[in-house]
Specification:
Blueprint: E1 9-17, E2 20-34, E3 43-52, H1 54-65, E4 70-74, E5 77-83, E6 89-95, E7 104-110, H2 112-115, E8 127-130, H3 135-146, H4 155-164, E9 168-170, E10 172-174, E11 179-182, H5 185-197, H6 233-238
Parallel strand pairs: 3-5
Antiparallel strand pairs: 1-2, 1-4, 2-3, 2-10, 3-7, 4-5, 6-7, 8-11, 9-11
Length: 245
């Protein structure tokens, strides 16, 4: 917990109603944002996780649903504007803190594009936003989304293909190292078929299911390390590392 506050960013926005102007500022512990080319203009936010009071979180929720622009302030980075766009969804909850009479309110907001990366959704999509760029995690999430016939041993090869073809790029992140993967199912299947023919990768000879041993922290507490087991919808969308504040 030592110096945990230094890992937080801030989200700000101004709300104007007739002659009244209200400035909202809340702590932010998670962010995924996609900058524009050459960092010109507002960024596209894909995930926001903020903490605040009842009134503050209610105001942020209303602003997200309206497609408002926020001012994002991150440690060691210039401030920039960002919006989640239309059809973003919010999930609200509470965090009980010892010594406080009232819990802190928590809000997670997801862009419509990020929501489409869950398994089975928008299988014709050509962009996949991921919480982390770990090779095994990237291959696992793409295989889940598109139903790709892959095995965990191909993770390093697949990452080299993404980098060689410039099909992966880093995004702005707070509390995570997000990436954007470009490509549809047919493109990835073409890579796999060609690599198999050239004997670059091989289908394992052993029969039976293959377990995905994801890096520690990628599965919520209470979920087995075998990622082939059931995952709840919330975990499927975020697949966020457990927070050890």
């Amino acid at each position: 917990m030592k110096n945990a506050h230094e890992r937080f960013g801030f989200l700000e926005f101004t709300k104007r109603v007739k002659e009244t102007t209200t400035r909202i500022r809340v702590h932010m512990d998670r962010l995924i944002a996609e900058p524009t080319k050459e960092n010109r203009g507002p960024a596209a936010a894909h995930l926001l996780s903020v903490l605040g009071s009842d009134a503050e979180i209610a105001a942020v929720w209303a602003a997200v649903t309206e497609g408002a622009f926020f001012q994002i302030l991150l440690p060691d980075r210039p401030a920039f504007a960002a919006s989640l766009g239309q059809e973003a969804q919010c999930f609200r909850g509470s965090v009980a803190i010892q010594g406080r009479n009232r819990p802190v309110r928590h809000l997670v907001a997801l862009s419509a594009e990020l929501l489409k990366t869950r398994p089975g959704a928008d299988r014709d999509g050509k962009r996949t936003i991921l919480f982390d760029g770990d090779p095994t995690f990237v291959l696992y999430r793409l295989s889940r989304r598109f139903g790709l016939p892959v095995v965990p041993d191909w993770a390093s090869w697949f990452m080299r293909e993404l980098e060689k073809r410039k099909a992966i790029q880093p995004l702005f992140g707070l509390g995570c190292s997000p990436v954007l993967v470009k490509g549809a199912k047919e493109r990835f299947l073409g890579w796999i078929g060609k690599a198999l023919k050239q004997d670059v990768i091989r289908i394992p000879g052993s029969k039976g299911a293959h377990s995905w041993k994801l890096p520690r922290g990628f599965i919520e507490p209470g979920i087995t390390d075998d990622a082939s087991s059931a995952v709840t919808p919330r975990e499927t969308v975020l697949m966020r590392p457990a927070v050890s504040a």
